[in-house]
Design a protein that fits this description.
Elements: E1 6-9, E2 14-15, E3 18-20, H1 25-37, E4 41-45, H2 51-62, E5 66-70, E6 73-77, E7 87-91, H3 96-113, E8 115-120, H4 131-140, E9 143-146, E10 155-159, E11 169-172, H5 178-186, E12 195-200, H6 206-218, E13 224-226, E14 230-233, E15 244-246, H7 251-264, E16 270-273, H8 286-293, E17 296-300, E18 303-307, E19 317-319, H9 327-333, E20 341-344, H10 356-366, E21 371-374, E22 377-380, E23 389-391, H11 397-403, E24 419-422, H12 434-441, E25 442-443, E26 451-455, H13 462-473, E27 476-479, H14 480-493, H15 501-509, E28 513-516, E29 519-522, E30 525-526, H16 528-531, H17 534-543, H18 547-558, E31 566-570, H19 573-577, E32 583-588, H20 591-604, H21 611-627, E33 640-643, H22 649-663
Parallel strand pairs: 3-16, 4-15, 7-8, 11-12, 19-20, 23-24, 26-31, 26-32, 27-31, 32-33
Antiparallel strand pairs: 1-24, 2-25, 4-6, 5-6, 8-10, 9-10, 12-14, 13-14, 16-18, 17-18, 20-22, 21-22, 28-29, 29-30
Bound molecules: adenosine-5'-diphosphate (ADP) and deoxycytidine diphosphate.
């Protein structure tokens, strides 16, 4: 996950590949709660691993429910209708799918068996209304206190108290369907007699109720439904574990990839696995809206294949009442259309993680779009002249994910503008690996992918600086020295003369080199430590003087220039490999300082060394690197010089980040 202040996406031009969706958030949390309330043990496969499910799992543990995790399988021992802990204080972050159903279940259990539970969350959670659920629970006879403001969390649920199950429970359906879901999941706990729930007002997000009913069915509870107004939980209903259950892929998350396919899968379709024609989730209906805009979509039972159909996309007017979450993606797709698009039925956006209508309008305008909004609609004009924009995400995962699509702007007219996503880690709510997955599918012109070059002599701190910069910006790193070191090491292993160009170059051309998890592998062998030896560094300097070796490693290095960007560390990054890099730094420090740093580094690793010897080696290496004829070590003409003899690592990093910030258009 990119846990950094912002992530810059370069302009993107195409998409290709297969994505396996993470488990659905709504299904994961429903199943977790039902499994916890039920009798018996439930093995849940494909559970989403993200903030909102973590919040639910931790709450269940606090309540005394036992569970174990093995990869994406979680096994829950059901409590069989009664919470082990009679008292608990639960922190539920910003997870609506945990707050509402837990409130209902714990309120009923406190009423029936006695108890004292407090439910709280982040400040935004305390601004999300829950009055309709509170009213319904009080109507049932539960004791519910709103601890701060009436109608909002935090809540305190106490008991015992007597429940009135003989009259229908009334709940409003026009603010959030999660209130009805919460009641439907909790009421089987007290269904000694038929319990009837009546919905007041037009029920929104009906497909989510379908999911709830289908999952209750899997747990042995058959709710009778009369239209969307009246639901009966039959007397004697009890939640019973189905044994094993599989969480389907997240259909709302699928929307980003459906859009990506529609915009940028040019030759063959993007394959999206985890949802398809068999899906329970209403958000798969997003595919209809995308198809209406011109996407070419094929459905398999558990997969979607999407590629560009009509182009530009068609502007649409669409009632999004059934696809509230995925609909946000349509607002960004609308930028690529041939006419305006109007999305209606999105009043619920106003009470989500943030006021999504206001947030969407504000951020689309930053890109240059003309946007109108009303209480429950938004109208977006297509965009011809794209502006680079820094997109605020309002602690809302969906804002971050859908605005990643704006980076495809070269496809939509006069674009090729980078897009900055602020606080990209907000995707952790439902899709921690979203950006990694996205980057694995998209393609950019190499010239559009930014590279920061860090060249300089040995032990000047290039590797350290490169790693820190890459970390701060979410970029890849190329340690080009490792390629020369690996060549030297392989040549030494093979008993070759390091000056034998004809023998060493073919070795460089076919190096089975692999970087993974901060380690370097040659074939199956982990050579990370071996390559760091001083003798190998000297050998690297020798083979690096051979033009045929440099030539052999050229293409390999270019291959590291991948979305979202690269920090390249070496001797000739700015002069020979990435001459068009937008920022080149030539890093130096006095020879005495560098010898001391290397000495410290070696002593720290437990390798004995003496400073005079290191200084002599380092000066000899510098001389050879500077005076060779092939790509000698020297600053590129447009390089910034940074002498860090008297700078801390932090100060060097800050300096380069400041130079980088100056270059960016945001
Ligand atoms: N600005 C700095 N001030 C002090 N020590 C530094 C600085 N930059 C790097 N170092 C230290 O110097 C040593 C060599 O740095 P390294 O990044 O391996 O250099 P290079 O990649 O240029 O050979 C490391 O132990 C590192 O922590
Ligand atoms: N881009 C590069 C990177 C390294 N080299 C050569 C020259 C260096 O002395 C060796 C070893 O490089 P490396 O960056 O690993 O060495 P230091 O960490 O700076 O000691 O490889 C090069 O010629 N071109």
């Amino acid at each position: 996950m990119f846990n950094i202040p912002f992530l810059d996406l370069p302009p993107l031009r195409a998409a290709l590949g297969t994505v396996t969706l993470p488990g659905s958030k709504s299904i994961s949390n429903r199943i977790l709660l039902m499994a916890a309330l039920a009798e018996g043990r439930t093995e849940i496969h494909g559970l989403l691993a993200a903030d909102d499910t973590q919040v639910m799992l931790e709450s269940l543990r606090t309540l005394g429910v036992q569970w174990t995790r093995d990869g994406d399988t979680v096994t829950v021992d059901g409590m069989g209708g009664r919470v082990p802990q009679a008292q608990a204080d639960l922190f539920l972050g910003n997870a609506g799918t945990a707050m509402r159903p837990l409130a209902a279940a714990l309120a009923l259990m406190a009423a029936r068996y006695g108890g004292d539970y407090q439910l709280r969350g982040v400040p935004r959670m305390h601004e999300r209304p829950i009055r309709d659920l509170v009213d319904a629970l009080r109507g049932l006879g539960c004791q519910v206190d709103c601890l701060a403001q009436a109608g909002y969390p935090p809540l305190r649920l106490t008991g015992p108290s007597s429940l009135h199950l003989d009259t229908p429970v009334r709940v409003r359906g026009d603010v959030s369907s999660q209130f009805l879901t919460a009641l439907l999941m909790a009421l089987p706990l007290v269904a000694q007699r038929d319990v009837v729930v009546e919905v007041e007002g037009e029920l929104i997000s009906k497909p989510y109720i379908d999911i709830t009913l289908a999952l209750l069915g899997r747990f042995g509870v058959r709710v009778q439904r009369d239209g969307w107004q009246r639901f009966t939980i039959p007397a004697g209903s009890r939640l019973q574990s189905p044994g094993r259950i599989h969480v389907e892929g997240d259909a709302s998350a699928a929307s980003y990839f459906i859009a990506l396919g529609a915009l940028a899968a040019l030759g063959e379709p993007l394959r999206i696995e985890g949802v398809g024609s068999d899906a329970l989730q209403g958000d798969v209906r997003f595919a209809d809206a995308a198809a209406a805009m011109g996407a070419d979509i094929r459905l398999e039972p558990n997969a979607l294949l999407v590629q560009r159909g009509r182009w530009p996309l068609r502007g649409i007017e669409w009632d999004c009442i059934a696809i509230p979450d995925a609909a946000m993606t349509l607002a960004v797709m609308a930028l690529f259309a041939d006419g305006p698009s109007k999305l209606t039925g999105i009043g619920s956006w106003r009470v989500k993680e943030t006021d999504r209508i206001a947030a969407m309008a504000t951020e689309l305008r930053k890109l240059g779009a003309t946007v109108d909004e009303g209480p429950d609609w938004i109208r977006v004009e297509p965009l011809r002249e794209w502006r680079p924009a820094s997109i605020r995400t309002y602690d809302d995962h969906r804002m971050a994910m859908c605005f990643s699509l704006a980076a495809l702007n070269p496809l939509g007219g006069h674009g090729a503008a980078p897009v900055r996503i602020e606080d990209p880690a907000c995707v952790a709510k439902t899709y921690p690996d979203y950006f990694e997955t996205f980057f694995g599918l998209v393609q950019a012109d190499a010239a559009d992918v930014p590279v920061i070059c860090i060249d300089g002599p040995t032990a000047s701190g290039k590797g350290t600086l490169a790693d820190e910069l890459a970390q701060a910006l979410g970029f890849w790193v190329l340690d080009s020295g490792a390629l020369y070191r690996a060549t030297a090491w392989a040549a030494l292993q093979a008993g070759l003369d390091l000056n034998d160009e004809a023998a060493v170059a073919p070795l460089a051309a076919t190096l089975p080199l692999r970087f993974a998890g901060g380690q370097v592998y040659l074939g199956e062998e982990n050579v990370t430590e071996a390559l760091r030896q001083e003798a190998v560094g000297l050998g690297a300097s020798t083979v690096a003087a051979l033009p045929a070796v440099r030539q052999a490693l050229h293409a390999l290095q270019l291959g590291f220039r991948r979305v979202p960007g690269l920090v390249a560390d070496g001797r000739d990054m700015g002069t020979a490999i990435f001459p068009d890099a937008p920022l080149k730094v030539f890093l130096t420090a006095s020879a005495a300082q560098r010898a001391q740093r290397r000495h410290k580094q070696l002593i720290f690793k437990g390798v004995s060394a003496n400073i005079e010897g290191l200084l002599a080696d380092l000066e000899a290496r510098d001389l050879r690197d500077k005076t060779r004829s092939a790509s000698p070590l020297k600053p590129a003409q447009d390089a910034r010089l940074l002498d860090n003899s008297d700078l801390t690592i932090e100060a060097s990093v800050d300096q380069v980040l400041a130079w980088w910030a100056d270059q960016r258009p945001f």
